[in-house]
Design a protein that fits this description.
mainly beta; 47% strand; globular
Length: 284
């Protein structure tokens, strides 16, 4: 039975399936070397809740994540965001954690006005099979591609935040994700700690480390004509993590899909409604 989470420290496991991977345009370099991430904090059964805000702070959606550990140690995680405009982000990840994290299967659905591209992608390590359904714009024809692909051991679609939480304090790492345009391609992502900020937890003050996720998109950068200077906001991914011995997710800022709107994602704890007054007896 899944446990419910009530404190920020308990929410470390919530992000096992949180998607910092987005559907990236595949103008890629050959991937640089990287290695599977070692398991420091094994994932377990989880049930948590999230809030989605615009950069202006307006609530634009809510999220729910569930995770369970099956027989044999396979972890299955699902993250669902329901947006106020009717858009849906539904992401399912299955992975093993025997010494290192290994992605077993991945399924992502993104549809609705919050996403420039309507996508449904699936890939399975066991069979090597993938399926991509994509559509850009209401008047465009849906494109469907299927095939086989040999997944590298350090591909972590839907798991980048989990990898970040398992890094030694102050460490950086390079991992890979798949970009579907529409065939799968491998792209390197650098996970880099940058700055610290103070966070409030009730009456307590703690420090949070800011991480930046930098995809290796040099060819995209040239394609956009931005040889020197900063990339557009759609290429920036920021995540803050509690700087404790056992790290915990605090906040995310970035897009959920390339060229999509920048959103903020934060934790949401369940709360009891006020207890209604007992009705007065009208008869004896």
């Amino acid at each position: 039975m899944l446990r419910r989470l009530n404190t920020i420290a308990d929410y470390r496991d919530v992000y096992a399936g949180f998607t910092i991977m987005v559907v990236l345009v595949a103008f890629l370099h050959s991937p640089a070397s990287a290695a599977p991430v070692a398991v420091r904090f094994p994932e377990g059964a989880t049930h948590g809740f999230l809030l989605v805000r615009s950069l202006a702070g307006e609530i634009i959606g809510q999220g729910e994540v569930t995770q369970r550990v099956k027989e044999g140690g396979l972890v299955e995680s699902q993250l669902v965001f329901n947006f106020n405009d009717g858009s849906l982000h539904d992401e399912k990840v299955a992975f093993s954690q025997k010494g290192v994290f290994t992605l077993i299967s991945y399924h992502l659905i993104q549809r609705g006005p919050s996403f420039p591209e309507q996508v449904d992608v699936f890939i399975d390590r066991g069979t090597g099979e993938y399926r991509v359904r994509s559509k850009v714009g209401a008047d465009e024809k849906e494109e469907v591609r299927t095939g086989t692909f040999d997944l590298p051991n350090d591909v972590y679609n839907g798991m980048v935040v989990t990898m970040m939480l398992n890094l030694p304090k102050g460490a950086s790492e390079a991992v890979h994700i798949l970009a579907f345009r529409p065939e799968p391609e491998v792209i390197k992502v650098d996970i880099l700690p940058t700055d610290q900020r103070t966070v409030r937890i009730g009456g307590l003050s703690r420090k949070a480390v800011q991480y930046v996720f930098k995809p290796d998109i040099g060819m995209i950068q040239k394609w956009l004509g931005i040889i020197i200077g900063e990339l557009p906001d759609q290429f920036h991914y920021h995540c803050w993590v509690l700087a404790d011995k056992i790290p915990s997710f605090v906040h995310y800022e970035g897009p959920l899909q390339l060229m999509g709107p920048i959103v903020q994602i934060e934790l949401l704890s369940p709360g009891l409604l006020p207890k209604p007054q007992l009705a007065k007896r009208t008869s004896r």
